[in-house]
């Protein structure tokens, strides 16, 4: 079912996910979720732990299949992972046996890109994420923030249309986290992509996003949508910012 | 409080020359004590011969050989060669098999009872069976060594595959990896440290069963040497045999460690972090 209108957009339609565990009630992670994502939009799904936001992201990624409903990209149904979607995981998940640059080259290597090409592509990305000089380090030699930068570079190496990010800064300390938020926006503004970001931090969501979807648990559904109509970079202390915070916080339970 | 802080700092400095001296002095002291107790008759030679006696026996075996003409070097060569063959056979079969079984849920379920049963059987108890099937001689002893090492390598490989971080698999899936790619580029490197663990344990088992394995009637070999010495209550020869088994075990073990460091430079730090 294609229409010109669907170009570049991602549609989530009536998505339900039931996990097959002992307690069926607890296994119902998300129910009848509907939303649309615009091209090059920065969309964040925010909610408490256990509200199903990661499940939703994994379904969009194609790592999980919905029990009911569908996710459509370019009018086509998502059934498995694809090169149009890249992902940054909560725990960087870099391969410890590969150096930083080799981790970035992982995707291009799988799709058969020649060695020189992928090396120069990877080096460009190393520079983009500000890790020049660290390309030959192993992940264990890098700090958490640096590992996440490599993870972002790795996801960008496939030049996906859509970047999926599952609480990528959750395991970082507050200061590093704020650095990474600025970094992410800088990278995003350099290479525009659609970003679907998942976090439990409202402040983070407001700082980064064009639009926020609040998810509520048991079962997970979209409670409310917020459009953040502030110019970037955003001042976390401004009244508008705090205003959004209050509103979203009120909706999050 | 000052003492504890100093102690912490000292332990961080790592292995110092003074540590080496302590090791040497302690070893010499123990040997000296042993010698003393033997000389005064407190330890009977048939139970534990003195170090000097062991040394002279070693020299004798090196020159004259025991039994006649079989020098210590011939014994060492025979044993080491058997262990290498048996161990390599075990590695060559257990690793691929382990990778296969670990990757397939149903296979693993089916194989589990068989593996648990088989590895509980002490290798030495298979001796009569081995002789019956393969006769007396080299093949039997090599196969027994192989049997001993096989199970440790197999079980560790299977566990290694099963315990591959599911996030890594997801990364593979998200980044265009085919099933083959996922196996060779994700699962395999991920499992290597565990495979090495299994190999080290398997090596240890090989050395433990060598004495039993050489009971198949071989004349040459450190285990055979120990068998021979048993018959004549030559405890001194037994000890020489044991020392050499220990030395070669140590050498090959260090070799494996070095190999691991070369092949898995990324895993060293990982172990420390996990601890």
Give the C-level CATH assignment of the domain at 1-80 and 200-253 in chain A: Alpha Beta
CATH topology of the domain at 1-80 and 200-253 in chain A, what is it called? Rossmann fold
**Known CATH architecture of the domain at 1-80 and 200-253 in chain A:** 3-Layer(aba) Sandwich
Helix-strand string of chain B? HHHHHHHHHHHH
- Strand residue percentage of chain B: under 5%
What is the helix fraction of residues of chain A, given as a range? 25-40%
How far apart, in Å, are the first and last alpha carbons of chain A?
A: 36 Å
Question: How much strand of chain A?
Answer: 15-25%
CATH homologous superfamily placement of the domain at 1-80 and 200-253 in chain A? P-loop containing nucleotide triphosphate hydrolases
The CATH first-level class of the largest domain in chain B comes to: Mainly Alpha
Largest interface, C-beta closer than 8 angstroms, per-chain residues? A-B, 25 and 24 residues
Average residue-wise pLDDT of chain A? 90
What share of residues of chain B is helical? over 70%
The tally of helices of chain B reads 12
